[in-house]
Amino acid sequence: MSRLKDLPKVERPREKLISKGVDNLRDEELLAILLGTGTKNKNVIELSKQILKAHPKKKLINITYKELVRHPGINMAKACLILSSIELVKRLMNIKSETLPIIETKQDIVAQVSDLRDKKQEHFMVLYLNARKELIYKKDLFVGVLNGSLVHPREIFVEALNEEHISATIILVHNHPSGDSEPSEEDIATTKRIIDAGKLMGISVQDHIIISQMRAFSFKENKLI
Questions:
Q1: What is the domain range of residue 113?
Q2: DSSP character string of the chain
Q3: 195-223 tens-digit pLDDT
């Protein structure tokens, strides 16, 4: 059994919530914060995964006190905390919030950057997503003749760590005005450098799309990511 305190601090649920925002926590991490502690044989994240596996989200929303306390490690206090949290969520669901676009496919990405097709100069844009793959921010970061030295990870990840739009994952997009959407060796090397930088900060690169007037090339679809 791995102990929670053996995880790097940035990966512990509470610390991750503080540093990256609540939107960037997985389901089991959110539940782990509510539970606080695990059992002798399971740390709190493993216990949370067990509960979510036994009660998927659609069932968890209607879980009962008796069902919860059947799980070893769930006492009266923890069961009441979970049930109170679920009930509060149900009541808050009546409050309408801004709907953010979900970005999962190449087509979703292209729809957000279609204006790049007709640009006469190269543009390098980054889409910033939360853990639910919702687009929370996008920015055109580099313009001109783009080479590896101009596209620097620092500028990309400064935006990802901005407290106004802290991101769980990013998508890279740039255009080829020449009309050829195939990546160059420099494109591949630049992408790898950005991915490696993201790993150090716990921010993944979901895809890199190259846009031309007629086509779009996905690094993910072509197994380059």
A1: 106-218
A2: ---GGGS-GGGSHHHHHHHH-GGGS-HHHHHHHHH----SSS-HHHHHHHHHHHS-HHHHTT--HHHHHTSTT--HHHHHHHHHHHHHHHHHTTS--PPPPB--SHHHHHHHSGGGGG-SSEEEEEEEE-TT-BEEEEEEEEEES--TTTS-HHHHHHHHT-TTS--SEEEEEEE-TTS--SPPHHHHHHHHHHHHHHHHHT-EEEEEEEE-SS-EEETTTTT--
A3: 999 999 889 999 999 999 889 999 999 99
